[in-house]
């Protein structure tokens, strides 16, 4: 039992690998999408869950990554293995550029600036036809390794699985590092963090940069799942979908992301016959979870002991620790 | 001549943006969060007026009143069932509650839009204009009566709200709560009621904007989202502190947007609002009339 | 509260674990064909912002299948239709198509409300060797990009729209300069290419391309800009709602030149939206239909819709899918009792001059050309009524 609890990720990846031998193309396609969203949501989790910053530009960073990767492959014949990290770096650079001025404002203003940025990027993608192909989108060819064209969903799965594993390991590393602690410190109280020697400004910029890197890599993977991207894939609804994943799964929880991404990729498929309710369903999910399950499903499962307690998991440092001790009650109203 | 036309359209558009922005500012001052569902309150106002006038057959004036009541009611209900439970959570305090409330408003935005799509999603609807004569001529210039109505109603509303905050007990109570919530509770103000009143008032602003705009634009479930961004921009430009500031910000934005579109590039009209938001927040975050609040930490 | 949380959490977890069931598919000779049924998968934007091209259009095709079933089916087999939603988004469209092909094992696919969503679907259907009839997706490359043995269309492609408009404008007297007003989405850009070429061919100057967005609420800035360019005619490549806004504002601001609209709008529908025929008396619209819906030529289709889907509004988008269904039914019949995908494909490319139903065109396919419908007619207003102008101005 202990082995299972302490190696959750290992189990998940192993299970997915085994499943890929039995799944049909439809299931495999959805698994690929789910893993892609996990990578992207890990970035959002870092900035929203761990660092507590309200960045609505995540879909836009995903778009930057996707288009960078797609255009490098189609226009410059760059091999995918190089295009993908480049896409991540490109998105990270833009994230850094957005982060530096954005840290001067906080909360409400940050949310609006990032929404504004998202809209502007959409517009650029649609109108800069010579570069992006405009609304027609870009068809992404399948990557070729060792002479084999990785076209089918199963081939794509292999690539995506490897990348997801690497990115998850990276996320674990970041969270356990000094930077991860700095993130949590500024989320909980900026003033206290600064008093303790955390360079708040620099940490915030790091948050933007790293989360954008994840989004960029995820965007590149996304372009592989359908072998096609167009500007509509990266609008505000995409960002909201990712927010839902983080909230439903559990902010500041790595495992939670897997849960959140799984639910939000598969639930719409299951609800295909209840179309009118889909849109409402997303909204209700967000509201219900925010009110009743603020620590997400991961938080719930951690409390039940089914999942191991994570470092900086919501129970200890989360937003809505309903179990926080008395000292808070004396000073807060 | 062209300038006059552009000005008349720009000013009336700007009034709408100002009204929508006002709703956002009210909620922000009370609870410190942007209300992403506000665009849908705009939409709700328009659909309520449509329901009243076209579906229920009420006379025009009554259907407007009906719309105001419905919009206000939706605002209060939303506050009670979605926002209040979160703000009552005992936790790290204002900052983390705010994150949760914002997400709740995002969820509400989606839910309201989805609800509207069920009966009305298949096509757009028309609301007839307020007056029988659609255009009147002033000095050789053809002005739309609907647009004149928008400007008139906005001015009246803004004056009324300013007076409300300055003179009435409830208004002062709301101001007190937004300044210092702990202090307000200490002196016995029922902050729950204040929140409800704030949301109700904000919803009424948005709803009135919606029903004024409805005859000019077509009524459909997606009409609120665009307005939201433009209302944000108006509020940013004007500054989040003052009621009249938002209106001025809105009007400026309306004028600038249409001149920008006409003389610079029609393709960029739609991102004019996001550009304004970014420019204002980067260079003068308090807007034109807001006070320099502590924006950091 | 806590128990509600528990319920939500436990049920979500249980749901999660049950999701990964992957049934093993058992294939007959060809998927989707049994002795008594043929399964056709349909996809379209049933919900979301493009819902107007979802159910109305799908029902217009389904009614043909229903009518065929009522007469006993094809070679003793009834057509079974499975419909999935795409919300006009590529990832969802691809998921829907994959589900239909791999889980529901459909014989063929009939669908696509938006062009953007069909790009990956089209590539996938070719890879999976599934015959596909497009619904209303008008992007040219969906059909013309080679290799293509599997994708067919029975609706006027976007590029032809542009050519018809350019040719029509060349027949309108005194038109030397034209301004184009339209969206920035793939729907519009499908038309800009041939429109620009066509105008150049006829020696008409294209003075500008102005943008109006789908959510257009006020066209003042655009109309004043267009007026300042002094065109002899305006081409609108925009959807119904923003086109109506544009026309209303144009009438108010005194832009009185002839306006030509693309197939994405319908003249009768525009008249309804604008609230009268006055603002449209100088407007011409390329139509895919034989005649206005109220005329006798369209009556059999209007009746059919009323019979099978009485709750559906009789509007332009209701019959966009009909011609595709007619072609599919014809090919299924010709393929005979021993139905395979190969035989169906062969039967499709043998179709020549099939009556397009409500469409103005008649359908002709060949091995190298899977676009069956190539003509549309321009409609305008004469003597207070809609008149079919054909391809020349009168």
How would you sum up this structure, described in words?
The complex is a heterotrimer of chains A (333), B (297) and C (394). Chain A has 333 residues and is mainly alpha-helical. Chain A has helices at 2-6, 8-19, 25-50, 58-76, 80-102, 108-127, 129-132, 153-176, 178-188, 190-195, 200-226, 236-249, 254-270, 275-292, 296-303, 314-317, 327-331; strands spanning 138-139, 144-145, 148-149, 228-229. A two-stranded antiparallel sheet of chain A has the order 1-4. In chain A, strands 2-3 form a two-stranded antiparallel sheet. The relative contact order of chain A is 0.16. The model of chain A is unreliable at 313-333 (pLDDT under 50). Chain B is 72% helix and 3% strand. Chain B is built from eleven helices and two strands. Chain B has helices spanning 2-31, 38-55, 60-87, 94-120, 145-167, 169-179, 181-186, 191-213, 223-238, 243-263, 272-283, and strands at 135-138, 141-144. Chain B is globular, with a radius of gyration of 19 Å. Residues 90-94 of chain B have low confidence and may be disordered. Chain C is an alpha/beta fold. Helices cover 41% and strands 17% of the residues of chain C. Chain C has 13 helices and 14 strands. Chain C has helices spanning 2-18, 55-70, 90-103, 115-128, 141-144, 158-171, 186-201, 220-229, 240-253, 267-274, 299-308, 322-335, 341-349; strands at residues 37-44, 78-85, 108-111, 132-134, 151-152, 177-182, 205-211, 233-237, 259-261, 283-287, 354-355, 362-363, 377-382, 385-390. In chain C, helix 9 crosses helix 10 (267-274). The radius of gyration of chain C is 23 Å and the shape is elongated. Chain C starts with a helix and ends with a strand. Residues 18-28 of chain C have low confidence and may be disordered. Chains in contact: A-B, A-C, B-C. At the A-B interface, helix 6, helix 10, helix 12 and helix 14 of A face helix 3, helix 4, helix 7, helix 9 and helix 11 of B.
């Amino acid at each position: 039992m202990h082995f299972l609890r302490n190696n959750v990720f290992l189990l998940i990846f192993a299970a997915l690998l085994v499943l890929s031998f039995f799944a049909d193309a439809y299931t495999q396609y959805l698994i690929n999408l789910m893993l892609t969203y996990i990578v992207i949501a890990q970035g959002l989790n870092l900035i929203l869950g761990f660092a507590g910053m309200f960045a609505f530009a995540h879909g836009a960073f995903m778009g930057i990554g996707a288009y960078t990767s797609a255009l490098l492959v189609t226009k410059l014949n760059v091999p995918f293995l190089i295009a993908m990290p480049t896409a991540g770096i490109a998105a990270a650079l833009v994230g850094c550029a957005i982060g530096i001025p954005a840290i001067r404002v906080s909360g409400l203003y940050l949310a609006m600036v990032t929404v504004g940025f998202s809209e502007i990027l959409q517009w650029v993608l649609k109108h800069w036809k010579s570069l992006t192909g405009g609304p027609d989108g870009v068809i992404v060819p399948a990557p070729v390794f060792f002479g084999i064209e990785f076209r089918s969903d199963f081939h794509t799965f292999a690539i995506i699985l490897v990348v997801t594993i690497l990115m998850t390991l990276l996320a674990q590393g970041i969270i356990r590092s000094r930077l991860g602690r700095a993130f949590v410190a500024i989320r909980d109280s900026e003033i206290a963090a600064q008093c303790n020697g955390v360079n708040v400004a620099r940490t915030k910029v790091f948050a933007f940069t790293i989360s954008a890197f994840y989004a960029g890599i995820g965007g590149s993977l996304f372009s592989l799942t359908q072998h096609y991207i167009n500007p509509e894939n990266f609008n505000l609804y995409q960002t909201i979908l990712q927010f839902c994943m983080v909230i439903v799964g559990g902010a500041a929880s790595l495992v939670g992301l897997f849960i959140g991404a799984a639910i939000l990729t598969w639930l719409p498929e299951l609800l295909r016959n209840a179309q009118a309710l889909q849109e409402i369903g997303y909204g209700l999910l967000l509201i219900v979870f925010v009110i009743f399950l603020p620590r997400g499903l991961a938080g719930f499962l951690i409390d039940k002991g089914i999942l191991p307690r994570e470092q900086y998991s919501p129970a200890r440092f989360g937003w809505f620790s309903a179990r926080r001790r008395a000292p808070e009650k004396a000073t807060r109203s | 001549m062209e300038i006059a036309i552009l000005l008349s359209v720009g000013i009336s558009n700007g009034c709408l943006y100002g009204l929508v922005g006002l709703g956002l500012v009210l909620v922000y001052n009370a609870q410190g969060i942007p209300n992403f569902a506000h665009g849908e309150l705009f939409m709700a106002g328009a659909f309520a007026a449509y329901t009243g006038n076209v579906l229920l057959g009420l006379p025009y004036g009554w259907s407007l009143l009906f719309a105001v009541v419905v919009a206000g009611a939706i605002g209060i209900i939303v506050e009670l069932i979605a926002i209040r439970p979160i703000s009552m959570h005992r936790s790290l305090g204002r900052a983390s509650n705010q994150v949760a409330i914002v997400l709740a408003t995002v969820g509400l935005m989606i839910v309201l839009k989805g609800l509207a799509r069920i009966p009305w999603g298949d096509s757009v609807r028309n609301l007839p204009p307020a007056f029988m004569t659609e255009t009147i001529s002033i000095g050789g210039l053809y002005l739309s009566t609907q647009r004149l109505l928008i400007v008139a109603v906005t001015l009246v509303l803004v004056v009324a709200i300013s007076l409300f905050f300055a003179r009435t007990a409830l208004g002062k109570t709301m101001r007190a709560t937004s300044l210092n919530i702990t202090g307000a509770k200490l002196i016995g103000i029922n902050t729950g009621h204040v929140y409800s009143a704030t949301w109700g008032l904000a919803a009424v602003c948005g709803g009135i904007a919606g029903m004024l705009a409805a005859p000019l634009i077509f009524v459909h479930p997606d009409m609120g989202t665009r307005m939201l961004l433009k209302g944000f921009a108006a509020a940013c430009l004007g500054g989040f502190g003052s009621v009249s500031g938002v209106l001025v910000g809105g009007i400026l934005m309306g004028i600038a947007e249409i001149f920008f579109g006409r003389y610079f590039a029609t393709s960029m009209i739609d991102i004019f609002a996001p550009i304004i938001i970014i420019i204002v927040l980067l260079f003068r975050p308090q807007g034109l009339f807001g006070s320099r609040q502590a924006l950091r930490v | 509260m806590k128990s509600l949380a528990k319920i939500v959490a436990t049920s979500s977890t249980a749901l999660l674990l049950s999701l990964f069931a992957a049934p093993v598919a058992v294939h007959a000779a060809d998927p989707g064909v049994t002795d008594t049924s043929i399964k056709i998968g349909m996809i379209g934007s049933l919900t979301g912002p493009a819902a107007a091209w979802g159910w109305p259009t799908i029902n217009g095709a389904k009614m043909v299948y229903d009518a065929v079933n009522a007469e006993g089916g094809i070679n003793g087999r009834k057509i079974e239709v499975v419909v999935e939603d795409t919300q006009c988004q590529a990832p969802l469209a691809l998921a829907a198509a994959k589900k239909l092909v791999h889980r529901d094992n459909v014989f063929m696919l009939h669908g696509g409300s938006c062009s953007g969503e069909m790009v990956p679907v089209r590539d996938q259907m070719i890879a999976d060797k599934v015959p596909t009839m497009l619904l209303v997706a008008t992007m040219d490359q969906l059909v013309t990009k080679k290799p293509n043995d599997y994708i067919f269309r029975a609706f006027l492609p976007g590029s032809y729209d542009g050519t018809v408009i350019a040719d029509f404008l060349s027949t309108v007297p005194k038109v030397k300069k034209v301004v184009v007003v339209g969206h920035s989405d793939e729907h519009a850009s499908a038309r800009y290419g041939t429109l620009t070429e066509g105008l150049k061919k006829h020696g008409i100057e294209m003075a500008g391309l102005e943008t109006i967005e789908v959510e257009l609420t006020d066209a003042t800035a655009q109309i004043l800009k267009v007026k300042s360019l002094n065109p002899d005619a305006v081409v609108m490549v925009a959807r119904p709602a923003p086109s109506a806004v544009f026309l209303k504002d144009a009438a108010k601001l005194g832009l009185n030149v002839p306006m030509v609209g693309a197939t994405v709008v319908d003249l009768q529908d525009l008249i309804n939206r604008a609230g009268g025929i006055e603002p449209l008396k100088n407007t011409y619209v390329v139509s895919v239909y034989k005649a206005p819906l109220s005329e006798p030529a369209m009556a059999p289709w209007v009746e059919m819709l009323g019979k099978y889907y009485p709750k559906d509004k009789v509007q332009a988008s209701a019959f966009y899918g009909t011609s595709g269904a007619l072609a599919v039914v014809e090919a299924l019949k010709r393929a005979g009792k021993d139905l395979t995908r190969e035989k169906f494909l062969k039967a499709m490319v043998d179709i020549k001059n099939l009556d397009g139903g409500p469409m103005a065109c008649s359908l002709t396919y060949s091995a190298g050309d899977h676009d069956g419908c190539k003509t549309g007619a321009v409609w305008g207003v004469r003597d207070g009524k809609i008149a079919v102008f054909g391809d020349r101005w009168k």
